[in-house]
UniProtKB/TrEMBL annotation:
It holds the Pfam family Adap_comp_sub. The lineage of its organism: Eukaryota, Viridiplantae, Streptophyta, Embryophyta, Tracheophyta. It comes from the Eukaryota. This is MHD domain-containing protein. It is found in: Endomembrane system. The keyword Protein transport applies. It comes from Manihot esculenta (Cassava).
Length: 415
């Protein structure tokens, strides 16, 4: 049972406080939390569960905003973390983004959402589709009406139809002239390449996203050609677990609209689409850098939105970097960004230049880590493929569509 939720800005300011039970949690717990975060740094912020002198704390970080939940009783920690993730996802969906200004501008809606999502410390309604029937998303018209009428509430006067349905994430009276369902495989590749060019780690985190607009209460089944490659699968509550456990088939009654059907990992991949070859030599107070980027394994689709980022070492006083393709920018915090977009066919993109070391430093001792970003439309690099999607009872003609995409995640090249 959660007792309180705080939303903290990146400076430690309490943007929102929501007491959930009769036992009030004092704000001083946030002061203790932030002092620990400052003193211990990133290692503290990466701990999802923290034991303070008076409370158990659960935290997640999204777009610079810390979602902090408190309790004094023992409870499943994964439930608290999952609930905070749901809150962050719902707010991002409602506000079409997530930052400090959006939360302060839509303070009332955030409070109304928390009122519906948790009851007396226990999670209640967390489905975005059902919440939209209960609380209208913010728009210009509703904001103007609240100013004119003085009524700032967005809560509907009637309960959503799902309260009378056997499946709480879907209403029973949905009707469409055209029945459509679209499935997206969205993957993110994490990789680590050491300074010798060897692949240390390569895995993919993926999500199966569904957008369904089907009349009535449909029952869908989705199967993959190679489900054995999947690890750490997580399902939407609509998925029946037994068909997956016995035959690796997803059987479900979908919510109406967009939702995440499942997430997964594919581990121990042995190939990467793009290579990055850094060369750094330093002597007599200067450092020469030469960086080359190219396609290592052609996925058969265009690779675009390619970027390379790296933090200049603290001992670097100034840098003069140029490239034969793309744009190079060095920010005030010594973060260098090289925007390549697409790799041309007639030459290999390269970045080169000279970096001046601080006075008294002859050689570079701390070497940068290069972070690669990219996007590939039309292919899932994990190799996962959808076999078929079937609807048991087809009210009318059903239109189906499938897409796949992969982007770079934590893709690091050591030098």
């Amino acid at each position: 049972m959660l007792q309180c939720i705080f939303l903290l800005s990146d400076s430690g300011e309490i943007m929102l406080e929501k007491q959930l039970t009769g036992h009030r949690v004092d704000r001083s717990i946030c002061d203790w939390f932030w002092n620990q975060a400052i003193s211990q740094g990133d290692s503290f912020k990466q701990q999802p569960v923290i034991a303070s002198p008076t409370h158990y704390l659960f935290q997640i970080l999204r777009e610079g905003i810390t979602f902090l939940a408190c309790t004094q009783v023992e409870m499943p920690p994964l439930m608290a973390i999952e609930f905070l993730c749901r809150v962050a996802d719902v707010l991002s969906d409602y506000l079409e983004g997530l930052n400090e200004d959006l939360i302060k501008d839509n303070f009332v809606i955030v409070y109304e959402l928390l009122d519906e999502m948790i009851d007396n410390g226990f999670p209640l309604t967390t489905e975005p589709n059902i919440l939209r029937e209960m609380i209208a998303p913010p728009n210009i018209v509703s904001k103007m009406l609240s100013v004119v009428t003085g009524n700032s509430s967005n809560v509907s006067d009637t309960l959503p139809g799902a309260t009378a349905s056997c499946v709480p994430w879907r209403t029973t009276d949905i009707k469409y002239a055209n029945n459509e369902v679209y499935v997206d495989l969205v993957e993110e590749m994490d990789a680590i390449i050491n300074r010798d060019g060897a692949l240390v780690k390569c895995e993919i985190y993926g999500e199966v996203k569904v957008n369904s607009h089907i009349t009535g209460v449909p029952e869908l089944t989705l199967s993959f050609t190679n489900p054995s490659i999947l690890n750490d699968v997580r399902f939407h509550p609509c998925v029946r677990f037994r068909p997956w456990e016995s035959h690796q088939i997803l059987s479900f009654v979908p919510p109406d609209g967009q939702f995440k059907l499942m997430s997964y990992r594919v581990k121990k991949l042995k190939s990467i689409p793009i290579y990055v070859k850094p060369q750094l030599t330093s002597d007599a107070g200067t450092c020469r850098i030469n960086l080359m980027v190219g396609i290592k394994n052609d996925p058969g689709k265009t690779i675009d939105s390619i970027t390379v980022q790296f933090q200049l070492p603290p001992s670097i006083l100034s840098a003069d970097l140029t490239s034969n393709h793309g744009v190079v920018n060095i920010l005030s915090n010594k973060m260098c960004t090289w925007s390549i977009d697409r790799i041309p066919k007639d030459r290999t993109p390269s970045l080169s230049g000279t970096m001046v070391l601080e006075t008294g430093v002859e050689r570079l001792h701390v070497f940068p880590i290069f972070q690669l970003g990219f996007r590939i439309q039309g292919v899932a690099l994990s190799g996962l493929q959808i076999d078929k999607l079937e609807l048991k009872v087809v009210p009318n003609r059903l239109y189906k569509g499938f897409r796949a995409s992969t982007r770079g995640g934590l893709y690091e090249v050591r030098s």
